[in-house]
Amino acid sequence: MNILVVGGGAREHAICDAVYLSKNIELFSVMSNLNPGIGKLSKDFFQEKETNIEKIVNYARLKNIDIVLIGPEAPLEVGIVNELNKAGIESCSPTKEAARIETDKEWMRNLLKKYNIPGQLKCETFTNIEKARKFIDSLNGEIALKPIGLTGGKGVRVSGDHFKTINDALKYVKEVIDNKIGGEAKILIEEKAVGEEFTLQAFSDGNTILPLPAVQDHKRLLPEDKGPNTGGMGSYSCENGLLPFLSKSDYEEGAVILQKIIESLKKEGCKYIGPIYGQFMLTIDGPKIIEINARFGDPEAMNVLPLLESDFVDICKAMIDGNLNTIKLKLKKKSTVCKYVVPEGYGVKSMVGKKIYIDEESIKSTGSMLFYASVNKDDALVKTTSSRSLAVVGISDTLNNAENICEEALQYIKGDHIFIRHDIGKSNLIEKRIKHMIELRGM
Ligand code: AMP
Ligand code: GLY
Fold it and tell me: Which ligand is nearest the CA of 192, by number?
């Protein structure tokens, strides 16, 4: 069976790794930047922009691809799956219509309202600044401001974190509306949810979901959750599938929400096939929906895919065939800690073209996994681009050991201009998260 993976980041490297472990497959890939890890695993690769659908469909035809897996959201938004379907090629990712759950935040919030899905936040969209002001006042300025469409994870502003006063909030409201940030002269204003964030990813065949272990991502650039939001600096998961602050019932509430979303998408006539991603805030009133993504998370894919004991391609086939209920999902009961290596200045102004020395064999000897992201390779030399460079994932029986192993492996990555958030997965930060939830519950 020929499998094509679209995307060239560390998430896609993890997807390719999982595909590669499956039986009787040949792996092909499309990526805009040559990912050395994906390149090594692929029988053939096509270096092309991931949104250039026509060329990708032609490549898939030429290589007799049976199933296509799409990593990032941008090709989903422009309908890559619809075009592959027209060409008679199956995809284990959602159509453009189903992917609106991620690509159109207003549509997503309306769907939640229409089907009375639990975990909602008060929210409204505005094209008029005066009306926005009244809504912001009614929420005492405790809000999140969001452009409607995709902004690469960098368009959201939250009170307290990114702005202090209602006037500052209104400045951003005006900026989004005037400049059509996110594609429309409109803004989504949500009530601010207070608590601890967690990610719940699941496989979906359009009828049922198979949820995966919960993960906590770290969006902020700097230790102690300081600095600007990034695409994600690292993440961890625990051997029991929960998180130190997340109970089984919280996890199950999240899974019920994802299941109800899948059912509502089916009722809307856009059956959702592929991995689905729920970003939740665990509040004192239970999990609240922050965003839903139409794909695996990056970095969160790297926490869950290495744990699969079931054959990944079998799961993909079951998602496409609508018989996910026949799969008995087997996962290693291990903790994972993922830390990204990024260029110095990432999130502000990355130092591009700087050398990174990677001792792959020694990294492997620690039991960690290495996933390449956005780098350039001249001969044997790996160099930074403006995006995240690579990720290391430590896997072990406990969170503490997984973190130690990850750090051990990071010793084998050297460069004068790289940056890592070393606090991810360390007990100090974990304790802080637990304490935060205890304090909120005691208030
Ligand atoms: P998003 O791009 O929607 O994931 O938002 C980026 C980050 O902003 C999230 O990971 C949260 O930390 C924060 N955020 C988004 N929406 C809210 C909200 N309604 N309340 C509190 N924080 C939020
Ligand atoms: N980790 C955030 C995302 O994948 O959107």
Answer: 1
